[in-house]
Specification:
Strand order of the largest sheet: 4-5-3-6-7
CATH architecture: 3-Layer(aba) Sandwich
Radius of gyration: 18 Å
Order of helices and strands: EEEHEHHEHHEHHEH
Helix content: 40-55%
Bound molecules: thymidine-5'-phosphate
Structural class: alpha/beta
Number of helices: 8
Largest sheet: 5 strands, parallel
Strand content: 5-15%
Number of domains: 1
CATH superfamily: P-loop containing nucleotide triphosphate hydrolases
Number of strands: 7
Length: 247
């Protein structure tokens, strides 16, 4: 059978890792008409990702760069149902393997119905979390009790060779982040605090995990100190984007 693998036109240098796709597995990933980047935001609880994504989206629009804001879990309609299962209720209702499978179901739906179509239409995609969250939470958070190979296999099955062009980790002491996050949840009708209710050790582990991942893949990750005011952090993010994408 002839190989159906194909190349996706990508901007010089930056998106090297997105060049190859198996088209029979990922028919949605066709040649994008224009440059478009997939930027993911990562970090522990209460690091300010959603606020910063909103500000970055506005900045990019002001530069005439079409973009969408999205998130995991819950970036699609079905994903919102999965999100409710994943982030509410008793912290021990799933084990880490079941959690990883559900996060990957959400991710696959998110990629095929939203992320890839948007990129292929030339829109930049800004995602509040992606697969690094699964490694941070389900692997490092739980003290590496889940096999890393299992998570890597799930990545290959659901995502293939596709990767973010840039991953910004907002790094913050979990004590500060958890306090912020729990304060915010007081005004929420549905309490999305399933992971917040885990021990501080879990949050310290996942923070270390992000820093370790960033060290191993410096060409994709940028770690920013999130213990700053909103405007200052936004300036740091814009600076990072300008440097990475030569804006
Ligand atoms: P957030 O969008 O408000 O950060 O909430 C999502 C929660 O889900 C957060 O506690 C991190 C967690 N999560 C995982 O544990 N694994 C994953 O793969 C993803 C995407 C999120």
């Amino acid at each position: 059978m002839p190989s159906l693998s194909g190349k996706v036109a990508t901007p010089d240098g930056v998106a090297e890792n997105n060049k190859e796709f198996q088209l029979e597995l990922f028919p949605e990933c066709r040649k994008p008409a224009k440059k478009a980047y997939f930027i993911t935001f990562e970090g522990g609880e209460g690091t300010g990702k959603s606020t910063q994504i909103k500000l970055l989206s506005e900045y990019l629009h002001s530069m005439q760069i079409n973009n969408i804001q999205t998130k995991e879990p819950g970036g699609t309609e079905i994903g919102q149902e999965l999100r409710r299962l994943l982030v509410t209720g008793d912290k021990d209702k799933f084990d880490a393997v079941a959690e990883a499978l559900l996060y990957y179901a959400d991710r696959r739906i998110h990629l095929t119905t939203k992320v890839w179509p948007a990129l292929n239409e030339g829109n930049w995609v800004l995602s509040d979390r992606f697969a690094d969250s699964t490694v941070a939470y389900q692997y490092y958070g739980y003290g590496k009790r889940v096999s890393r190979e299992l998570l890597d296999d799930l990545y290959k099955i659901a995502v293939g060779d596709f990767k973010p062009d840039l991953t910004i980790v907002l790094d913050l002491d979990p004590k500060i982040g958890l306090e912020r996050s729990l304060k915010k949840s007081l005004s929420m009708a549905v309490k999305e605090t399933r992971h917040e209710s885990r021990a501080l050790e879990f949050h310290n582990n996942l923070r270390k995990g992000y820093l370790e991942m960033a060290k191993l893949e410096p060409e994709r990750f940028v770690v920013l100190n999130a213990d700053k005011n909103i405007e200052q952090l936004h300036i740091d993010i814009v600076q990072t984007i300008k440097e990475r994408f030569k804006l």
